[in-house]
Amino acid sequence: MKSLHYLAILAVSLFSSTNGNPSVLTPRATCTVQPSLNGTDDAPAILSAFKTCGKGGTVVFLNHTYTINSIMNTTGLSNCNIDIYGTLLWSTNITYWLNHSMAFGYQNQTSAWWLGGDNINVNGYGYGTLNGNGQAWYDFVKGISNYPNRPHALTIWNATNSVFKGLRFVQSQMWTMTVFKSSSILLQDIYVNSTSSSGNPSRNTDGADTIYSDNIHFDRWTVVNGDDSISMKANSTNILITNSTFYNGLGVAIGRIGQYKGVYESIENVTATGIVFYKTLHGGYVKTWTGEQVGYPPNGGGGGLGFAKNITFENFSFNSLRGPPFSISQCTTFSGTVGNCSSSAFQLSDLNMYNISGSMTNPITSFQCSAVAPCTDITMENIDVVDANNTAGVGYKCTNVVGTTGFTCTGRT
User: Fold this and answer.
1) With contact defined as beta carbons under 8 Å apart, do 61 and 34 qualify?
2) pLDDT tens for residues 187-206?
3) Is 114 within 8 Å of 74 (Cβ atoms)?
4) Signal peptide span per the entry (predicted)?
5) Is residue 307 a contact partner of residue 349, using CB atoms and an 8 Å limit?
6) What are the DSSP calls for 319-373, one per residue?
7) How confident is the model over 56-64, as a mean pLDDT?
8) pLDDT (tens digit, 9 = 90+) per residue, 246-261?
9) What element of type H or E holds 169?
10) pTM value?
11) How far apart are CA 264 and CA 314, in angstroms?
12) pLDDT digit string, tens, across residues 367-402
């Protein structure tokens, strides 16, 4: 019985001003989810708690492990507090997840948990953990990119005016956190570690991705993973990334974008500042599909239209980057192979890199832009980087770049 799984109690914890008097107190329902503790599925109890307390209440996860054996859709919440003191542990029943994960209509991607609504406040207090049991997935897919129906750990779905803080994500199944069709979200003090303990890579374990979202702030993130640290994808606007540290992955990514033939998409007003990188491939990089469609998403496509502009990478500190600090590639085609780099009509402009320091691999840039729509207005100022021999970084490799400030292209990519 669900009464054995969660306890609903009333607590005076919320001020109401419905009668214009801010001194009037309104009781807030609190649903404390009791874990099964025997490995049976806790998802039904969690869903019941949200049904009772998801509008104007508080849902509490105790300092125990909750077993998640089935999908969870907890959307449409309002004025809801979520306190996570324990661990949500997803099962390794790969057959179930491949057949039941929830599709959200982008690149054939799916998710294990949708969480959304207005004025949601999620707090993990530095130890609330979502454990995706990802090693089972890394070994199962064996490095295959975008394996169909492999679920994302958490999708923030149609959320507004909400805060997520103090959370830990370990061994995510695929992308860790997807911010989808959401706006005015603060994501603060988040730790992500998706690393493989076998010879199979933790590919596609992005720290976070934004899609069709506006006014998203990532603050004080730590990401250790095998793919994009944080990535902005289709129709992401006004994105801010601050005071974060990234290890081993690919860096801050703009895209990939331009995957859907004839579809117009954009990425605009993105700033990443105060970021420290350790052994990532890049600091910041931009990637689009070619102008020629080959295959279909998630691993194929191309021919998309649109633009990415007003992108700023500043106050970056590098420690032993594995590749150029900054990269642009408009060459993506089927299954990640290199296609016709000069065919994309997707326009990149107003890219800015300021106050950059640390150790890297030459060249400083690798800008492979399209001949159909060259990259325009790229600025680099106060660049102080060195190679492995402690020699000043040299080399600005560029193809089809028009309008540079603060640097001169020294050769083609």
Assistant:
1) no
2) 999 999 999 999 999 999 99
3) yes
4) 1-20
5) yes
6) ES-SS-SEEEEEEE-GGG-B--TT----EEEEEEEEEEEEE--S-SEEEE--SSS
7) 99
8) 999 999 999 999 999 9
9) strand 160-170
10) 0.94
11) 28
12) 999 999 999 999 999 999 998 888 888 899 999 999
Number of domain units in the chain: 2
Return the DSSP state at 391.
Answer: P
The b-or-e profile of 80-102 (16+ CB within 10 A means b, else e) is bbbbbebbbbbbbebeebeeebb
User: What are the pLDDT digits (tens) for 82-96?
Assistant: 999 999 999 999 999
Question: What is d(CA 62, CA 213) in angstroms, rounded to the nearest whole number?
Answer: 31
Q: Which residues are the active-site residues? A: 227
Q: How many residues comprise the chain?
A: 413
Is residue 227 assigned to a domain?
Answer: no
Q: Is the residue at 2 inside a domain?
A: yes
**Pairing mode, if any, of strands 110-111 and 102-103?**
antiparallel
Token output for 25: 């107190």
> Residues with Cβ < 8 Å from 358, sequence gap 6 or more?
277, 316, 317, 318, 319, 321, 385, 386
> Max Cα separation, the chain?
70
Are 205 and 259 contained in the same domain? no
Do 183 and 254 belong to one domain?
Answer: no
Structure tokens at 86: 């324990």
Average pLDDT, the chain: 94
